[in-house]
């Protein structure tokens, strides 16, 4: 079920719980699926140098990032027996406590979704050109270091 079209995975601002719930609900009619797995990346209110992170402002080279997301998607479908996969990432300002990354994989079998989801998330972190500027409560900021 691979779609060769390069999709825009970016959503402005936080990814809402309603959007996530709607995505899950749409899969109830797909009776060939036996398992789903979901990863939700959330902005943490880290404390750095005595200041608390209030939000992260995400920027990206959108075209390049979408191509990289597409390549990760294609590689994942080659490696794992998946029925479908959805990836969404925030662009713009996301407050602490809000969701910035939503990855949803589905397969006839549970073991495949566990392995596939870990692979996808690690590949995103390692390869996709997305940058986060941490905004502190005192309005100062710094570029986030991925961990």
List the helices and strands and how they pair.
Blueprint: E1 10-12, H1 17-25, E2 35-42, E3 47-48, E4 51-60, H2 62-79, E5 84-95, E6 99-107, H3 110-127, E7 130-136, E8 141-143
Distance between the termini: 32 Å
Largest sheet: 8 strands, mixed
Question: Which structural class fits the helix and strand makeup?
Answer: alpha+beta
Radius of gyration: 16 Å
Secondary structure tally: strands: 8
Oligomer: single chain
Percent strand equals: 35-45%
Describe the protein's architecture and organization.
The protein is an alpha+beta fold. It has one domain: Molybdopterin biosynthesis MoaE subunit (Aldehyde Oxidoreductase, domain 3). The chain has helices spanning 17-25, 62-79, 110-127, and strands spanning 10-12, 35-42, 47-48, 51-60, 84-95, 99-107, 130-136, 141-143. Strands 1, 2, 3, 4, 5, 6, 7 and 8 form an eight-stranded mixed sheet that branches. Strand 7 (130-136) and strand 8 form a beta hairpin. The two termini are 32 Å apart.
Key descriptive features of the protein:
147 residues; alpha+beta; Aldehyde Oxidoreductase, domain 3; eight-stranded mixed β-sheet; 37% strand
Question: What can be said about this structure in brief?
Answer:
The protein has 147 residues and is an alpha+beta fold. The chain is built from 3 helices and 8 strands; from the N terminus they run βαβββαββαββ.
């Amino acid at each position: 079920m691979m779609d060769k079209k390069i999709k825009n995975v970016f959503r402005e601002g936080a990814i809402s719980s309603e959007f996530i719930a709607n995505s899950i609900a749409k899969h109830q009619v797909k009776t060939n699926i036996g398992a789903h797995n979901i990863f939700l990346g959330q902005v943490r209110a880290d404390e750095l140098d005595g200041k608390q992170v209030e939000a992260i402002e995400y920027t990206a080279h959108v075209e390049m990032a979408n191509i990289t997301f597409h390549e990760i998607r294609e590689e994942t479908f080659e490696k794992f027996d998946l029925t479908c996969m959805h990836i969404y990432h925030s662009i713009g300002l996301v407050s602490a406590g809000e969701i910035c990354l939503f990855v949803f994989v589905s397969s006839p079998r549970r073991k495949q979704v566990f392995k596939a989801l870990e692979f996808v998330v690690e590949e995103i972190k390692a390869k996709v050109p997305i940058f986060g500027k941490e905004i502190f409560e005192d309005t100062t900021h710094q570029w986030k270091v991925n961990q």
